[in-house]
Amino acid sequence: MNASIIAGEDFPIDILDYRDALAMHRKTLGEEHPALGRNLNFLARLKFETGALDEAKQLLLQTLVLYQKTLPTAHP
Q1: Confidence class for position 13, pLDDT limits 50, 70, 90
Q2: pLDDT bracket for residue 12 (50, 70, 90)
Q3: From CA 68, how far away is CA 76, in angstroms rounded?
Q4: How far is Cα 37 from Cα 61, in angstroms, rounded to an integer?
Q5: Is-contact 42 33, C-beta < 8 A?
Q6: CB under 8 Å to 5, separation ≥6 — which residues?
Q7: Residue 26: its H or E element
Q8: I want to staple 56 with a disulfide (CB 3.0 to 4.6 A). Which of 22, 30, 38, 48 is the partner?
Q9: Angle at CA 48, nearest 5°, toward 3 and 20?
Q10: Are 62 and 40 in contact (CB under 8 A)?
Q11: What is the domain partition of the chain in residue ranges?
Q12: pLDDT in tens, 32-71
């Protein structure tokens, strides 16, 4: 699925672009880097907005687990 949508900014965001960014972050930063969570969260948002609710939920759960592992408990 190649769904381009407007995501609150003034430019289209493509789901495949976030998948590419996610793969690049995984390769360069590893599986347990907080920056990976940002991409997971953005991809989850796009999945939600395109109606892929199960995929969005799984991505959000991955984001939560990652942040719980990598950020201090007092992190905002």
Answers
A1: low
A2: low
A3: 12
A4: 10
A5: no
A6: 12, 13, 46, 49, 50
A7: helix 15-29
A8: 48
A9: 50
A10: yes
A11: 32-71
A12: 888 888 888 988 988 898 888 999 999 999 999 998 888 8
Q: 64: which 2 tokens?
A: 């939560």
Q: Write b or e for each residue in 31-56: b if 16 or more Cβ atoms lie within 10 A of its Cβ, otherwise e.
A: eeeeebbbbbbbbbbbbeeeebeebb
H or E segment and range at residue 48:
helix 34-49
Q: Which amino acid is at 56?
A: A
Q: How many Å apart are CA 19 and CA 26, to the nearest integer? A: 11
Q: Is the pLDDT of residue 8 over 60?
A: no
Measured CA to CA, the distance from residue 71 to residue 74 in angstroms comes to 8
Here the tokens at position 4 are: 């381009």
Element (H, E) at 6: strand 4-6
CA-CA distance, 68 to 72, in Å (whole number)?
8
